[in-house]
Write a sequence for this structure.
């Protein structure tokens, strides 16, 4: 299992995460929100994390 954390102070609401993985990412109140904070595999969430220009997404194994 993996846990997704978003640093909302760093997030600039660019929406790249939502474009890469629209099934799990939404932009609400001008900030990124993950639909699922715990996932079995990183999949496209890793690509969303890697593309974040502010490095506001962190995925860790739990």
């Amino acid at each position: 299992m993996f846990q997704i954390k978003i640093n909302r102070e760093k997030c600039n609401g660019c929406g790249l995460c939502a474009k890469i993985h629209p099934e799990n990412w939404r932009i609400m109140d001008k900030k990124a929100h993950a639909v699922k904070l715990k996932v079995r595999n990183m999949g496209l969430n890793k690509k969303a994390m890697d593309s974040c220009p502010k490095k506001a997404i962190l995925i860790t194994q739990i």
